[in-house]
Amino acid sequence: MRRFLILLCALLLAGPAAAHSLRVFAKVEGGQVSGYGFFIGGGRPQGVDWLAQMGAETIAKGQTDARGSFGFPAPATVTADVVVTVNTGEGHVASTTLKPERFGGAPMPGSAVTEPAAMPDGTGAALTRAEVEAAVAAQVAPLMERIEQMDARMRLTDVLSGVFLILGLAGMALWARGRRG
What we know:
Helix content: 25-40%
Structural class: alpha+beta
Distance between the termini: 14 Å
Strand content: 25-35%
Strand order of the largest sheet: 4-3-6-7
Number of helices: 3
């Protein structure tokens, strides 16, 4: 019983192993794909391998820089999802998928902009679809980055769930032990 209590205390005092969860953020902007890998809880993988594939074809690869970043020219024609994978070589592997729509290819459902849109101020100037998409992408990229970081962080509910799981398992073990005796 004493060993069990010592083990339980050690488990409760142990901090979460957040560094083992790797995530990847990538964006397409101005004909360039860029992004970075990051560990939940902080830190970025420096000097590790990354790979970009479109279907089964490798379109770019390299190593992250000192900030955990990568970048490569966007393919001229995107025929499938582009998957960017960061591999630290220590069992930490993460990837993100960029859909063809992110490259200005096939329109997304509900985006039926086929002609240049006239400016509301009546100046007669018009924006092409590519200009509108580039402007929207530039505005949305920081939001997407922030959402990815928020999804990746450790929450209090995650910690409490782990603690109560351990307590529940300990209670079941004590109940089973009491039934034997």
